Backbone:
């Protein structure tokens, strides 16, 4: 299932920020909470978080851009992450990445034009003994093969 | 009589269908009117047999695997009848792959219900903490030192010395930080223990708090591990309710609270100072050392920062096992190491054993060679920053010093197996590429060296001035190794140089290679 996100709303954003602002070292906690609610970190939320944390806008923006997880725009309806790390490479993961890219007509790190699927690399899900691995909308998939990948891609296109 | 069935809830088992198996088992039992009790455990670590399910019998737990949702019904019949089944593996404890291990840290993983303090206690849990509460700081530190435990994250620093330093440093607040940012490909021991036996990590951290005088701990878990995050949070809640975390733990005068923090996809945050920066809410930029985290760590306070497996080894040691722990192993590598066999391997999983076993025994004998059935050509030991070893070096014993002597490292104990279809120049390129993607950007050798490394290996693979460019790579690796601030830039040369040294033929330009590169 695709998680349903709230549309950006400054009042809701301020509420989320206020919930965590007392936490020690709260910046990542707040960014995670914002992304969990809205599906990405809306740009107007950054100065709001900065002001609540008594940090500069640049400091919060710097944290936001440093970490791969945080998005600056919503992802597609589905997110498929394919593991690109060594254990999955050893088990044929690279060929699956190429296959997914060819089927979808996009490179890793992009979303299909119809906004249905975002295809992303991930570096290790810790499922290295049942490689190759993937994650579809937060659901883990081990022993991925071409047939299974094709089925997943077809499912997300429906 | 209610049938008690154990189904792994470990992420690795769930990824291959364990949830569906549990569901079908429940439905099948309902249909037959058989009362069953399904316990979701962690994994025993025999991943080629996952989903593995077990049933309690008077003789012990009988295992079946790998069970698909389509087999679940017939397996249930076999369980009821105690009859034969093609997937029946016999008594779980008697499976040779499990029986050959020395499970000290992972003794309970896959056995108990990871959400139950009661179950944990029934399997010797919290004995270490009980004793620690009566011992006090000095005696705990003495036990940890006696055990010879070295940091299981990869660096292998003696845990007793680290803790003693924090204990002796005066401050108004001190912290215990558990590094659960297990980003190395081929490693999953931290994930397994957090999902399968989270209380052992909590107990270890609590003991650390008592030993050094800290009252607050953080577990920094990578976001790629949602199951582990949920398991740790649930266990912390259960421990609080049982009075084993919070104020006056276990009725003593010690306080200790724990909090889970989630990473955000930065590999470099597995480096301890970068992790501390991240916990403080900043970019995961590596700090220069000194000061050591033991003197000035989280929020500038003395901090014990250890890997999950280091903390998980503590309860056994404190439950009177310090000498017993030290009796395992070889040289200066004492105790056991949870080795993780991964990649293209027939019998992949977690194998906890005393140090000293050879790489060849692990790969060929225990791992059973490749899953593809082709010959093993290379194994990478110790994650993306570990060296590639050819079968010619399979006599290397699993030991910190023995691996260092052969220009490798055991790191966090992961072994990734590759068959003869591997292109080692491509693997060397990947090592540089990964370093470029994940570099925090603070130091030049890592930030720029990794990108130049990718470009140079690309030239070699295209057959451009191969010998000159190999010299450039060697020089670059030397600069990165000695000039980088942390292990990311400093250890990336291990996979690159080992690929060059042991597999030079993959870097030579041949017509086939040139064609493939196009």
Residues:
């Amino acid at each position: 299932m695709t998680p349903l996100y709230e549309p950006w709303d400054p009042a809701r954003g301020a509420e989320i920020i206020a919930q965590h602002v007392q936490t020690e070292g709260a910046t990542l906690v707040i960014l995670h909470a914002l992304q969990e609610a809205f599906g990405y970190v809306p740009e107007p939320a950054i100065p709001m978080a900065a002001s609540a944390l008594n940090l500069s806008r640049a400091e919060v923006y710097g944290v936001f851009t440093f970490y791969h997880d945080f998005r600056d725009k919503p992802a597609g309806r589905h997110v498929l992450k394919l593991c690109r790390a060594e254990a999955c490479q050893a088990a044929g993961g690279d060929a699956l990445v190429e296959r997914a890219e060819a089927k979808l007509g996009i490179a890793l790190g992009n979303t299909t034009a119809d906004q249905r699927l975002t295809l992303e690399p991930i570096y290790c899900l810790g499922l290295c003994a049942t490689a190759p691995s993937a994650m579809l909308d937060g659901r883990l998939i081990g022993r991925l093969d071409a047939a299974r990948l094709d089925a997943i891609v077809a499912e997300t296109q429906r | 009589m209610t049938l008690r069935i154990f189904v792994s809830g470990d992420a690795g088992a769930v990824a291959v269908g364990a949830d569906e198996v549990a569901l079908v088992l429940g439905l099948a039992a309902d249909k037959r009117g058989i009362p069953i009790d399904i316990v979701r455990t962690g994994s025993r670590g025999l991943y080629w047999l996952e989903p593995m399910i077990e049933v309690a019998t008077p003789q012990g737990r009988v295992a079946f695997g790998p069970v698909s949702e389509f087999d679940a019904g017939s397996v249930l019949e076999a369980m009821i009848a105690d009859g034969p089944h093609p997937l029946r593996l016999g008594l779980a404890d008697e499976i040779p792959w499990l029986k050959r291990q020395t499970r000290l840290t992972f003794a309970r993983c896959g056995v108990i219900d990871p959400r139950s303090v009661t179950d944990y206690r029934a399997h010797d849990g919290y004995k270490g903490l009980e004793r620690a509460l009566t011992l006090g700081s000095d005696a705990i530190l003495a036990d940890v030192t006696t055990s010879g435990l070295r940091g299981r994250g990869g660096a292998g620093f003696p845990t007793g010395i680290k803790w003693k330093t924090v204990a002796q440093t005066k401050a108004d607040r001190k912290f215990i930080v558990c590094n659960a940012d297990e980003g190395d490909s081929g490693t999953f021991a931290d994930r397994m223990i957090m999902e399968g036996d989270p209380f052992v990590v909590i107990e270890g951290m609590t003991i650390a708090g008592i030993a050094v005088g800290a009252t607050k701990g953080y577990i920094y878990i990578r976001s790629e591990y949602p199951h582990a995050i949920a398991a740790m949070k649930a266990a912390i809640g259960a421990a609080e309710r049982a009075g084993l975390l919070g104020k006056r733990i276990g009725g003593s005068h010690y306080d200790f609270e724990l909090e889970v923090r989630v990473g955000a996809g930065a590999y470099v945050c597995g480096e301890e100072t970068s992790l501390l920066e991240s916990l403080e809410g900043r970019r995961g930029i590596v700090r220069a050392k000194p000061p050591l985290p033991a003197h000035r760590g989280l929020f500038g306070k003395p901090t014990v920062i250890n890997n999950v497996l280091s903390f998980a080894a503590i309860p056994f040691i404190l439950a009177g096992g310090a000498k017993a722990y030290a009796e395992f192993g070889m040289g200066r590598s004492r105790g056991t190491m949870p080795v993780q066999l991964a990649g293209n391997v027939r019998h992949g999983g977690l194998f906890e054993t005393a140090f000293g076993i050879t790489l060849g025994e692990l790969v060929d004998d225990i791992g059973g060679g490749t899953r593809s059935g082709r010959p093993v050509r290379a194994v990478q030991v110790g994650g993306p920053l570990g060296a590639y070893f050819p079968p010619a070096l399979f006599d290397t014993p699993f030991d910190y010093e023995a691996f260092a002597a052969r220009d490798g490292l055991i790191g966090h104990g992961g072994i990734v197996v590759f068959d003869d279809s591997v292109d080692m120049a491509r693997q060397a390129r990947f090592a540089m590429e990964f370093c470029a993607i994940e570099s925090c950007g603070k130091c030049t050798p890592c930030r720029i060296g990794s990108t130049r490394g990718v470009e140079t290996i690309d030239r070699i693979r295209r057959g451009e001035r191969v010998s000159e460019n190999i010299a450039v790579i060697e020089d670059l690796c030397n600069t990165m190794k000695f000039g980088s601030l942390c292990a990311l830039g400093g250890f990336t040369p291990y996979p690159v140089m080992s690929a060059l040294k042991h597999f030079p033929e993959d870097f030579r330009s041949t017509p086939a290679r040139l064609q493939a590169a196009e």
User: Anything to note?
Assistant: The CA atoms of residues 54 and 158 of chain B lie 38 Å apart.
